[in-house]
């Protein structure tokens, strides 16, 4: 861990360094975080606090990180963004739950439609059977009418023959 004097001599004495060292944060492991400088492309030379035990023993849980120049306003903005994100996640979760409910209702409706369609098919088969029976009965009636007409014709002929013969 760096002392206030070592950091002041090794890093330019800016107000950020002085302010941040006075409010030196503590890591979740219990040790005070040390002030370091970023060497990344995205944040070159930017000061940050990191756990002083980070990667000393290969333990990944020492992962405390905080930018040294981050003000409370910026942190509050991040908290607001986090809150918005959590709200959006809640909304997404609710929307997904509603979607699942709607999907389940749709599945139930589809099942009802399928059952109704099966009933309609059954009724249609019954109607076809009855129509077939009606057609058969109509054919039988036609045949009976023809037979009755033939019988009447024979009777009329017999009557005429009988009347003439007397």
UniProtKB/TrEMBL annotation:
It comes from the Eukaryota. It holds the Pfam family Zn_ribbon_GRF. Keywords: Coiled coil, Membrane, Metal-binding, Transmembrane, Transmembrane helix, Zinc, Zinc-finger. Residues 27-71 form the GRF-type domain. The chain crosses the membrane at residues 146-163. Residues 78-126 form a coiled coil. The keyword Cell inner membrane does not apply. InterPro entries: Znf_GRF. GO terms for molecular function: zinc ion binding. The keyword Transit peptide does not apply. This is GRF-type domain-containing protein. It comes from Carya illinoinensis (Pecan). The lineage of its organism: Eukaryota, Viridiplantae, Streptophyta, Embryophyta, Tracheophyta.
């Amino acid at each position: 861990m760096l002392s206030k004097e070592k950091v002041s001599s090794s890093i330019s004495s800016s107000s950020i360094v002085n302010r941040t060292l006075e409010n030196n944060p503590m890591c979740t492991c219990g040790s005070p975080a040390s002030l370091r400088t970023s060497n990344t492309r995205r944040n070159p030379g930017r000061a940050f606090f990191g756990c002083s035990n980070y990667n000393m023993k290969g333990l990944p849980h020492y992962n405390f990180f905080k930018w040294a120049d981050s003000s409370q306003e910026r942190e509050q903005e991040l908290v607001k963004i986090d809150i918005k994100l959590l709200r959006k996640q809640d909304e997404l979760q609710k929307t997904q739950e509603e979607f699942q409910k709607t999907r389940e209702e749709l599945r139930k409706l589809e099942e009802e439609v399928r059952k109704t369609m099966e009933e309609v098919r059954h009724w249609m088969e019954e109607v076809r059977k009855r129509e077939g029976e009606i057609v058969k009965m109509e054919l039988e009636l036609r045949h009976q009418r023809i037979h009755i007409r033939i019988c009447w014709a024979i009777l009329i002929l017999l009557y005429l023959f009988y009347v003439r013969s007397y």
